Amino acid sequence: MTPRGTPGGTPTGTPGETPAETPGKAPGTTPGTPPEEPRPGRRARRTAVTSPRTAATRRPRYPATREIDEQTGLGEVYMRSLLRTQFRLALFVCTVLACVVGGLPLLFLLIPELREVELLGVPLPWAVLAGLIYPAFVLGAWLYVRQAERNERHFAELVERR
């Protein structure tokens, strides 16, 4: 039904009249029924007309995984943020390990008494640089993998939330 008129869309009454001006008709009444007299202080009842296609006006929402797969601008932003986070983590781990490896010779240079200490018959600098440094590398690698997986989990949660 159209907002003003009959099912065919033609206005009731004579052309140019609004439903309130139609003689003998009150808005919202059906033909053949007597019009209701509005009571003092009460407004006439209004009818809201809506379209059944309310979902048609909404813009479809694409998941962020589709943005990444199709390599759109937004997908590139997501990937850049993940790569930047992973790169920052890699730089941090490499810097810490470089400071440890580079700092040991400096430590032995600055404290000469450490050069004289022997560990199982091997001078301490040789023992540390030849064997004890590898567990530090393994520990650094384990911490890196653990943190990288955490970054990827956070990234996946961010993508799924969108």
Briefly summarize what is shown.
This protein is mainly α and about 160 residues long.
Describe this structure in words.
This protein is mainly alpha-helical and 162 residues long. The protein contains four helices and two strands. It has helices at residues 64-69, 73-110, 112-116, 124-161, and strands at 118-119, 122-123. Strands 1-2 form a two-stranded antiparallel sheet. A hairpin with a 2-residue loop joins β1 (118-119) and β2 (122-123). α2 (73-110) runs antiparallel to α4 (124-161). The protein starts with 63 loop residues before the first helix and ends with a helix. The mean pLDDT is 75.
Give me the secondary-structure category: mainly alpha
Q: Can you count the helices?
A: 4
3D shape = rod-shaped
Fraction of residues in helix: 40-55%
> What gyration radius follows from the Cα positions, in whole Å?
40 Å
Unreliable residue stretches? none
Main sheet characteristics: 2 strands, antiparallel
Give the DSSP E fraction (strand runs of 2 or more residues). Answer: under 5%
* Strand count: 2
Key terms:
mainly alpha; 162 residues; 4 helices
Question: Layout of helices and strands, plus pairs?
Answer:
Blueprint: H1 64-69, H2 73-110, H3 112-116, E1 118-119, E2 122-123, H4 124-161
Antiparallel strand pairs: 1-2
